[in-house]
Amino acid sequence: MTDSELDLPEQLQIRREKRQRLLEKGIAPYAVEVPHTHELAEVREAYSHLETGEETQDVVSVAGRVVFIRNTGKLCFATLQSGFTEGSSGERLQVMLSLAEVGEQGLADWKADVDLGDHVSATGRVIVSRRGELSIMASSWVLASKALRPMPNLHSDLSEETRVRQRHADLAVRQEARDMVRARAAITRSLRETLHGLGYLEVETPVLQAIHGGAAARPFHTHLNAFDIPMTLRIALELYLKRAMIGGAEKVYEIGRIFRNEGVDSSHAPEFTMLEAYEAWGDQTTIARMTQQLIVDAADALGSRQVVVDGQEIDLDGEWRWAPFYPTLSEATGEELGIDTPREVLERLAGAHELEVDPEWVDHKLAMELFEHIVEPTLVQPTFVCDYPALAQPLARPHRSEPGLIEAWDLIIGGMERGTGFSELIDPVIQRERLTEQSLAAAAGDPEAMQLDEDFLAALEFGAPPMGGMGLGLDRLVMLFTGAGIRETILFPLLKPQS
């Protein structure tokens, strides 16, 4: 044993000693293949009709992780657990090892070599124990993989920190963790199936970008050695998807990771998954109907259009109302507010509602912060908040009837923004003006401002069709359906390293 191994906790040392002993005996602690004729779920389904004490002569070979062991004198019991798949959340099945069936050496080896967490294969007859437990009465067994670290107790609660840092252990012992993975997969699959049914093409766009844009967010910076140029990780999917639309793709979408170098809390992560979709000849209303269908279809995939968030029931089958930004803010504050409201009024309202004001916020930004602080938490049922000031979305079309506003919405469900959409700005002259304003703000020190993207503007000057576009946070959609925080919905979230 090496010096580093001597420093290990006793449990880890013992397991390493067992591994070494197996190797010295010529037994592979990590087999290439083992007998495996039936999945655990197949055995349960095929023999569920057996009664207590009934035995068969049917011999099967099953494999799984040992999650329970009870070793007695001449009879040992173990519970094997299978992995989980799209169609199964994992199954458990009892294996019995008796002196009469596996022999003295087989039973002694089992007791000496097998620990909780090991993967084993057992071959034997299908029976039901005297206690009514469907079981395999093993005639032989094989070690498939030796676990060198003990697994958590099945009946102890893991802290959230342990769950996210050791997701492999979380998945092994906690049904809720496996259910979360399967729920997210079902939601993602539903999104794709709905979009496919509507005629959308799925495409992929670059993650590494020379110019960041498509959202107001702080990017991650990196360097491309091959070209010796600075690069960023994408903060949105938008601009390249629009280039595909300009080239003639009438309906496109992408589900992909994006990266924002900002705060981390229960609803924000540095890397997360977005769905963005764009349709030609549409606008904010058509893309809103499509977004509603996406979410309702995902709810159907999980089995219910009624969800509960923080104890409040949300009816996705009910009305999805539209709430204009300034009238809704006016109703919440009791004062008539609009695009021309003086700053001193907004600052007074901010003070009354205990909102700390950043001096860098322009008037419309302050109004948006007020809305997020006062109104957004109260919007429990699905609500499209619309008619924002132009500052909200530099890539959205000016409102066709309300000067100073844009045709854009944020979808609020359960007091949280779940997605956004708008009638896309396709006028390259106005778009250049908007991006120039953004680039000047960036040059003045705004880390979230977009840069002037000449390649995108050149593409837009080629001519884009009228279109509607949307972005939907996949992680926040999973949060809606599961009631979990964002760190639980992301299988392997980015975490602060432990010292």
Automatic annotation (TrEMBL):
Main location: cytoplasm
Gene Ontology biological-process annotations: lysyl-tRNA aminoacylation
SUPFAM superfamilies: Class II aaRS and biotin synthetases, Nucleic acid-binding proteins
Catalytic activity: tRNA(Lys) + L-lysine + ATP = L-lysyl-tRNA(Lys) + AMP + diphosphate
Domain Aminoacyl-transfer RNA synthetases class-II family profile as annotated: residue spans: 184-497
Keywords on record: Aminoacyl-tRNA synthetase, ATP-binding, Cytoplasm, Ligase, Magnesium, Metal-binding, Nucleotide-binding, Protein biosynthesis
Pfam families: tRNA-synt_2 (PF00152), tRNA_anti-codon (PF01336)
Enzyme class: ligase
Domain of life: Bacteria
Localisation per UniProt entry: Cytoplasm
CDD domains for the chain: LysRS_N
Annotated Gene3D superfamilies: Bira Bifunctional Protein, Domain 2, Nucleic acid-binding proteins
Cofactor: Mg(2+)
GO cellular component: a single term: cytosol
Manner of cofactor binding, per the entry note: Binds 3 Mg(2+) ions per subunit.
InterPro entries per the UniProt record, alphabetical: Aa-tRNA-synt_II, aa-tRNA-synth_II, aa-tRNA-synth_II/BPL/LPL, Lys-tRNA-ligase_II, Lys-tRNA-ligase_II_N, Lys-tRNA-synth_II_C, NA-bd_OB-fold, NA-bd_OB_tRNA
The enzyme's E.C. designation: 6.1.1.6
Annotated Mg(2+) 2 binding sites: E417
GO MF term set: ATP binding; lysine-tRNA ligase activity; magnesium ion binding; tRNA binding
Chain sites annotated for binding Mg(2+) 1: D410, E417
Entry's family note: Belongs to the class-II aminoacyl-tRNA synthetase family.
HAMAP family linked: Lys_tRNA_synth_class2 (MF_00252)
Subunit structure as annotated in this protein's UniProt entry: Homodimer.
Name the record gives this protein: Lysine--tRNA ligase
Species per Swiss-Prot/TrEMBL record: Propioniferax innocua
Lineage of origin: Bacteria, Bacillati, Actinomycetota, Actinomycetes, Propionibacteriales
